[in-house]
Amino acid sequence: MYTNITGQHTQGELKSPTKTNFMQKEEVSKAFWEGSSFYPSYPFVKERRKWEIDYLLKNIPTNAESLLDLGCGNGSTTILLRELTYIKKYWCYDIGAGMLSTIGGNRDSELITKVWDANDGDFNFPETDISISMNMFPCIFNDAVVEGIVKNIQSSVFITRITCRVYRDWE
User: Fold this and answer.
1) Helix 43-59 vs helix 76-84: angle between axes, to the nearest 10 degrees?
2) To which H or E segment does residue 117 belong?
3) pLDDT in tens, 51-67
4) CA–CA distance, 77 with 88 (Å, rounded to integer)
5) How deeply is 67 buried, as exposed, middle or buried, from its count of CB atoms within 10 A (0-12, 13-18, 19+)?
6) 97 and 160 in contact (C-beta within 8 Å)?
């Protein structure tokens, strides 16, 4: 349980559509992850997820109105972004229908969810101001699929988090 930016006590979901300055957003993000039950046995994951949200908040253009989240999982990133940004429309794609059903948060923005498997080759993405994929690429083992996704993103900004990289030049 934590107190959100309006002082309401909540558990696992932010309820206030209030937007605030970055320092307050960092505190909301920290409280959300410390109080969430998404990763109960893995405190290091909560810290990593807080870092990701803080990074996104610093790098999402302030005039962004639409966002595509590929591999959104349980929607925890979307829940916080719906709380802390002015983005009006979200597309959330994930392979797990059950995961998509948990996405909540600020109801002032439109939310479109889609059960989607990257390996099926459906790369018809909506045109959005920003696309993100925080945890999906390490789960894709086919380079052609990764290339198909990246080539078909229709956003001027694409932020992704990957956990491995091939270094060919050691100098």
Assistant:
1) 40
2) none
3) 888 899 999 998 999 99
4) 15
5) buried
6) no
Nearest Cα residue to 136 out of 155, 153, 111 = 153
Structure tokens at 105: 């948060």
Tens digit of pLDDT for each residue in 8-30?
A: 333 343 333 345 565 577 677 66
pTM greater than 0.85: no
Listed in sequence order, the DSSP H helices in the chain are 22-35, 43-59, 76-84, 97-100, 143-152
Rounded Cα distance between 58 and 103, Å, is 22
How far apart, in whole angstroms, are the C-alpha atoms of residue 93 and residue 117? 8
Q: Where do we find the tokens 């059950």?
A: 98
Written as one letter, the residue type at 148 is G
